[in-house]
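Researcher: We're teaching a course module on how sequence relates to structure. For the next exercise, students receive a sequence and then see the predicted structure as tokens, so they can try to spot secondary structure elements on their own. Here is the exercise chain.
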Amino acid sequence: MVELKVLGAGPVKRGVTQIAAQFEKDTGNRVIVEFTGAPAVRERVLAGEAVDVAVVPQSAMEEFVAQHRVAANTRVTLGRSRMGLAMRKGAVAPDLASVAAFKQAVTEADAVVVNVASSGNYVVKLLEKLGLGADKVVKQADTVKVMDHVATSPQNLLGAGQLPEIRELIDKGVAIVLAGSLPDELQSITAYEAAVTKASANADVAATFAEYLAQPAARAAMAATGID
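Model: And here is the predicted structure for the students to work with:
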């Protein structure tokens, strides 16, 4: 039996965890899945930490390939994630159907809460582009903290995040509801990829797992969590 360590970031956590459990049943190997913020994953992989498979946004994977931290021939695409806004449970849902409606919703909110990863950075730049001031932004370390803040604050807050992450936290009982996805014109679609790291001590089995993540059954599992 081989023990694989998977280090990842982003809203693919739920799907990857489910697929890893099935991989264990099918192969008898063990898979330890750890997900954290994208900046931390980037730092750890670039530092050469002994993980077997990295799961990150496409932009981070490009950097890993350029820095020779992953085996490029093992790279697979898991799917794409879209962004949305959440609000405190019981709050009145804003209209997010158009760019004008989105701007009105943000204007009427006390603040928009974002993480410090790529999705949060996107929202900050988007608000700046739309002429909505930086004073509207509250930053938290990750999406879990973003949504906890939205759920517990008495203010009228909107929490930005990847739709699969918002749905997962709702399922876990965080007192938020989905306000809606960003309008198509403002949408950010993030592709997530996996690859075997050069630091892997189990490269052959890790490559098998990466291939497993790209199988039709795995893609169906990802789709069920909101990753298309």
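Model: If you want an answer key for the exercise: The chain has nine helices and ten strands. The chain has two domains: 3-80+190-224, 83-186.
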